[in-house]
Each structure stands twice: as structure tokens, then as C-alpha cells.
Amino acid sequence: MNHPAFACPPDAAVVARHLLAAFRNTDLEALEVWLDQADTAPANTPKMDTGAEERWELLRSVARRMRCGMNQFSLRLTDRLEGGELCLTLLAHLAASRASSLRLTEDIENVLEFSPNLAH
């Protein structure tokens, strides 16, 4: 999978939704792509309001934590994604920040059901 090409960067909610979907589908390639997208997110552009800046900052932090946990998991230093449940909760919160129809609790439960060892 290639990195998504955007005319302008997506907002943090879009990236968070893609990260949740990739995690839910255990699509490691897509997960890497969207973690990269989160990590290279725009920083403090003149058109970005304070709320958007804070959402991107939180998304970058969650993505870095997830990447660190995935590295530890792949090196077999742990049998689960440390802090995974918190990361998924924060991603779901960010994903819902512009889509109030997303059922936050149900989405998190669905992700955890499909990946029980990764998210505790």
C-alpha cells in the first residue's frame, strides 16, 4: 500500500478513523501508513485553530505510543500492545470529534474483541 496522497492534509479525525480501521482489520501495512500520516501531520499552520492543533498533537502522541508498543510486540518483548486500550480509546475519541454518529464504546469493544492480546 502506498502512502495516501492528499491535496491538503486530512483532519485528525479522518486519520484516527483510518488507524482504528487498520487496527480492527489487523492490516499492519495500512496501520504503518496511517501511523506515518499521523506522525507527519501538519503542525501549527496559520489556518489551524487551537482545537485542531491540540487534536493533531494528541494524535501524534498516540501514534508514537502505538508504534513503540508495536515494536516491542514484534520483538517479542511483550505479548500485548502496552497501553493499547488507552490508545484505542483516545483514537476513538478523536475519530468521533467530527462524527458524532460514531458509537464510541461499541467501536472500542469491537476493536478489542478482534485483537484481545494486543490491546491490554
Question: What level of helicity do the residues show?
Answer: 55-70%
Radius of gyration: 14 Å
Q: Could you spell the SSE succession in H and E letters?
A: HHHHH
In one word, what is the shape? elongated
Going by helix content, strand content and strand pairing, the class is: mainly alpha
Low-confidence stretches: 99-105
Describe what is shown at a glance:
With 120 residues, the chain is mostly helical. Helix content is 62%, strand content 0%.
For the structure shown, list the relevant keywords.
mainly alpha; single chain; 120 residues; 62% helix; 5 helices
Give your account of this protein's structure.
With 120 residues, the protein is mainly α. 62% of the residues lie in helices and 0% in strands. It is built from five helices and no strands. The chain has helices at residues 12-24, 28-39, 50-74, 84-96, 104-114. It is elongated, with a radius of gyration of 14 Å. The termini are far apart. Residues 99-105 have low confidence and may be disordered.
